[in-house]
Every structure is written in C-alpha cells, then in structure tokens.
Design brief:
With about 190 residues, the chain is mainly alpha-helical. The chain is built from five helices and eight strands; from the N terminus they run E-E-E-E-E-E-H-H-E-E-H-H-H. It has a two-stranded antiparallel ribbon. A hairpin with a 4-residue loop joins strand 1 and strand 2. Helix 3 crosses helix 4. The longest helix has 29 residues. The chain starts with 12 loop residues before the first strand and ends with a helix.
C-alpha cells in the first residue's frame, strides 16, 4: 500500500492534456503517457498526453545512486490498519470516543468527509471490495464494543475500544491464516 502525499497537484501535461511538458519544467516524478493521434477514445477529444505521477521513492543511502524503493506508510502486519489507521492521528480520527466504537453515520455506514467515505485508509472506497471490507470490519468492531460494554460496564471507553480492536484483529488474522491462505496457496503449500 503506497500513500502518495499530495501528488495530485503535480502536472506532467500542458494545454489541457494536448502537450507533454518540456523535461526542464517536468517534476522528477512525472512519467507522462503519450496518446497516439489514432487513439479511438482520446484522439477525438484532442488529448495527446496523459499525466502519470509515480509514487514517492525512498533510498537507504542518500549519497549513493541506487534503485529507489517504494515508500510505504501502511503497516505490513495483519493488524487491520486499513480500518484503524497506521498512526495515532488517523486512529483518533476514525474513533467516535463513545462506548469504544468507531465512527459511522446514522445508517451504520462509514462516515463522509468531503463527499468520500473514510476509514483508517484514505482509499476505503476505491473499489467495491475495499468498501465492503472496511464496512464489515468497522461494523464488527462496533458490535464487539457494544457487547463488551454490556458485559463490562465498569470498563472505560479506551478499554472498550482497545479490547474490541484486539478481538477484531484476531478475527481477521484467523480468517487470513486459517481460511484464506489455504484457498489461495493450496493446502500442500502450507504443510510443514
């Protein structure tokens, strides 16, 4: 998962996508796509250039020329960071701070921000699968928090949130390790 920090504002084409910017004016992350004059879709619209911006890269040694690695702000763990966020600020943003639950709207749907649904990952609704994934695990968390709250009325909001989060992550890990991996890799691949 690569997070691109505001690269949407980088332009690789000029003149309403009719021309590629000269290399002297082009950002180093630009890799524009030239459109053929015979393209059946773009040619009638007079589009000759499509902007394409690569994601940021990082290097382990800034003094040596080497192939850059993709920067990745998400965790590599099966910790449901797409639901809870990969950092403390994002986690605070998705929490309701009411009964240990995550934010949802009145219809139990992910909340809107600037016309887009949001969750722990800014791409929560980029595809239908991601929208379903985020919705299911957000609802699962809230159901767990409500059940834990009814059984443990003395727990603080923070305790309810963290315990529901732990259980939700365990459910997800169990699903990945005990069900999905075997289907994806085949049972022969998992034998020791």
């Amino acid at each position: 998962i690569n997070f691109i920090n505001n690269l949407e504002s980088i332009r690789c084409c000029s003149n309403y996508n009719k021309n590629q910017l000269p290399s002297s004016l082009m950002h180093s992350l630009c890799l524009p796509i030239t459109i053929s004059r015979s393209d059946p879709f773009y040619a009638p619209q007079n589009v000759r250039c499509m902007g394409f911006v690569r994601s940021n890269t990082i290097s382990n040694n800034p003094y040596q020329v080497e192939v850059g690695e993709q920067a990745n702000a998400a965790t590599s763990y099966l910790d449901l960071s797409p639901i809870y966020g990969s950092d403390y600020d994002r986690m605070r943003k998705v929490r309701s701070f009411n009964g240990g639950r995550l934010k949802v709207d009145m219809k139990n749907i992910l909340p809107l921000e600037n016309g887009n649904y949001y969750s722990g990952d800014v791409r929560a609704t980029q595809t239908p699968f991601l929208a379903i994934f985020h919705s299911l695990f957000t609802r699962s968390h809230n159901g767990l928090a409500e059940k834990l709250g009814s059984l443990n009325r003395h727990w603080s909001e923070e305790k309810l949130f963290q315990e529901a989060r732990k259980i939700n992550i365990a459910i997800y890990q169990n699903f990945i390790y005990d069900e999905w991996l075997e289907l994806f890799l085949g049972s022969e691949s998992l034998e020791l």
